[in-house]
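Hello,

Our lab assistant flagged a job as stuck in the queue for most of the afternoon. It eventually completed. Since we weren't sure the result was trustworthy after the delay, we are filing this so someone can double-check. Below is the sequence as submitted and the structure that was eventually returned. Let us know if re-running is recommended.
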Amino acid sequence: MFPGRRSAIIVVVTCFFVLCCIGIGRLAADELHKKDGSIVYGLFKRDGKSSVKFLEVGNKRAKTYRKKDIQRIVLTWGLPDFVYSDPEWSREMVQARKEASFDPAWGEVEVMRSDHYIVFTNSSAGKRYLKTMEDIYDKFKKTYPFEDLEDASLMPVFLFKTNDQYYRFYAKIANNSISRAKMSGGHSWKDYYATYYQAPKDPVHYHEGAHQLVKQRLRTSGGGSWFQEGLAVYFEGVVFKSEDPSIGMKTEVRTGRYIRLREMVALRSLLHSRDTESTASHRYRQAGAIMKFLVEGPDKERFPQLVEAVRSGDSWEEIFRNVYGRSIDEMDLAFVDFYKDYKR
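-- returned structure --
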């Protein structure tokens, strides 16, 4: 993690600090005294109404302690940052991502952490966006339940002060033209989400934040364009009722103007596909409507099995037969039945 000789020095120093905190030395750290007589050493992080967050030395995540179990908290001076740093986000790694993503001419870059995210920003809105990202996390987990892993890395978010800075970042990292980058208000790729300063509650954050969570927490990167976009569009509609993809679907299925499921799963890209006469917005909305059917429909209890099956890499014909016992065309008929008498 730390290159060369400096690596060995930091590891030794870290071990020294940790040992000092657990009683072999005298170096001070915050102390959480529990009513059972035990003492936890580390860093006091957050004070809540009935609990506190305390990061114990050696751990990657702060733990919640109920105030009724605490005798007292002794605050002293903290240990060096690297003692508490998530090993996946060492100071060297943070510096490397800053240098790769932000031009020095754009001003100072601040780095902020929360329970699940690490935000890099040269704007003044970092805290508000950090709050938005945690809101996305909470709502996404309720929509698509997943297990919180203790060793899960913090997810990076790059928040640029201006849209021009974002466009230049996007064009560089994706090897795209500036004009192509200007078609985006934010994007999720690899492990990160990147955007520029705009309303923290803009639906684009929830859509792209969902993409990041699908990969980083649902651990699902397959399924094709319709599945990945369907997950994000449906989630966006759960949070913002005006974005509900079911709007208008009753009319579409009754008139036969909807895109057949067999055609949807065959599309390489909902955004750039030339295999259909429908518009990209229509394809996106229907992908979300299909996902709503799968998540809320008569077989909703099988949705976790569906997500697991997608990870297998099987064809959609195999997935639908294995999970629902139906062919693609039979699933299409079930989709029509769900929406033909649908009431929001």
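-- support follow-up --
The delay was a queue issue, not a problem with the job. The result is valid. Confidence is low (pLDDT under 50) at residues 1-27. The chain has three domains: 4-84, 87-216, 224-340.
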